[in-house]
């Protein structure tokens, strides 16, 4: 996946510059230059950008800005989007949709990231009680290092799907979860609080030198690439994730499978793009299970559909059906292990 284009913002209104930067960040885009016309004109070496967004209270007051901008850049310039309303108002959603359409017209398909508002809305949901743990499964606790890992990969619409999935799992399953979610890094704390509110599996931040434990959902950081060392402990590279969005779900799958091999599995939930489709065949070659959320239950099904098209997927379902299938799979594995132990005794 290619690196995402950089967006540059020029506005004579500080609040508008702030709102524009926040809005483009939701689509995984980085902001390069962000300043007023005077600051841009004062630059000897003009910055480069994949797209310029210019929002001025009166464009006729800045003829030199328009002239220099046209001379110094071959990239498209977006004028006249209109001032961003207060995010709390209904007009903001229309303005944001208009911005998204203009960005896609100029930059190609983009991925929307869930916002704090959409995450907070999940707090109002009241899930049904999950099934109880089968008596032949020995419950695990949070002090147990996981031997089997399930990667939960998601993007747009992912938090709602992951919440439904986790809410339907009984406590004590002998597996660990690693959660890779395309999201603005500023919302990670909100995400952890909302998703762990009713579930038996609390979301924990990935920490250097710690293992992945049963009974926990280890959240992958947006900013730094994570991997597991020879002892299965969490380590970080001093570099960003490859690709346009952090974390890269493909890279998470590859890095975790490097240590866990056939004991590393993945479920791809709602999201735009095709993150996960590159790594899926490689994990399947290990003997891993690859499951995806059903298209009709996704907010956007591009990502799970792309993974399904690789031919590597062995189960498709709603988040609740995926949870039930995981419980069934663990039950079958535990029964098989007990029979093997009995036969060898």
List the helices and strands and how they pair.
Blueprint: E1 6-11, H1 14-25, E2 30-35, H2 37-42, E3 51-55, H3 63-72, E4 77-79, H4 90-107, H5 116-122, E5 149-154, H6 158-167, E6 176-181, H7 188-195, E7 202-205, E8 216-219, E9 226-228, E10 234-236, H8 249-260, E11 264-268, H9 279-286, E12 290-293, H10 302-308, E13 315-317, H11 319-344
Parallel strand pairs: 1-2, 1-3, 3-4, 5-6, 5-11, 6-8, 7-8, 11-12, 12-13
Antiparallel strand pairs: 9-10
Helix pairs in contact: 5-7, 6-11, 8-9
Protein architecture, described:
With 345 residues, this protein is an alpha/beta fold. It folds into two domains: 6-107, Rossmann fold; 137-344, 3-Layer(aba) Sandwich (Rossmann fold), CATH 3.40.50.180. The protein is built from eleven helices and 13 strands. The protein has a seven-stranded parallel sheet, sandwiched between helices. It has a four-stranded parallel sheet with strand order 2-1-3-4. The longest helix has 26 residues, at 319-344. The model has no long low-confidence stretch (mean pLDDT 87).
């Amino acid at each position: 996946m290619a690196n995402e284009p950089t967006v540059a913002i020029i506005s004579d209104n500080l609040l508008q510059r702030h709102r524009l930067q926040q809005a483009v960040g939701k689509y995984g885009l980085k902001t390069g230059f962000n300043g007023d016309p005077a600051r841009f004109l004062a630059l000897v070496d003009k910055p480069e950008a994949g797209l310029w967004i210019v929002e001025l209270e009166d464009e006729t007051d800045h003829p030199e800005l328009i002239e220099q901008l046209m001379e110094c850049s071959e990239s498209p310039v977006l004028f006249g989007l209109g001032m961003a309303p207060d995010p709390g108002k209904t007009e903001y959603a229309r303005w944001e949709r208009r911005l998204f359409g203009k960005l896609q017209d100029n930059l190609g398909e983009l991925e929307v990231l869930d916002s704090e508002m959409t995450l907070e809305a999940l707090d109002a949901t009241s899930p049904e009680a999950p099934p109880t743990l089968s008596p032949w499964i020995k419950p695990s606790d949070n002090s147990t290092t996981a031997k089997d890992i399930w990667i939960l990969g998601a993007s747009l619409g992912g938090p709602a799907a992951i919440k439904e999935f986790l809410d339907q799992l009984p406590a004590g399953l002998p597996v660990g979860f690693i959660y890779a979610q395309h999201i603005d890094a500023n919302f990670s704390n909100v995400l952890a609080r909302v998703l762990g509110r009713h579930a038996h599996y609390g979301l924990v931040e990935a920490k250097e030198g710690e293992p992945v434990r049963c009974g926990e959902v280890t959240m992958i950081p947006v900013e730094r690439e994570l991997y597991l060392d020879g002892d299965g402990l969490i380590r970080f590279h001093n570099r960003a994730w490859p690709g346009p969005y952090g974390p890269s779900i493909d890279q998470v799958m590859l890095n975790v499978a490097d240590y866990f091999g056939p004991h590393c599995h993945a479920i791809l939930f709602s999201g735009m793009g095709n993150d996960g489709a590159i790594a899926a065949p490689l994990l399947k070659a290990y003997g891993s299970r690859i499951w995806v959320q059903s298209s009709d239950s996704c907010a956007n099904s591009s990502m799970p559909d792309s993974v399904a098209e690789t031919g590597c997927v062995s189960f498709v379902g709603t988040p609740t059906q995926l949870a039930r299938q995981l419980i069934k799979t663990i039950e079958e594995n535990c029964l098989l292990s007990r029979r093997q132990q009995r036969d060898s005794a």
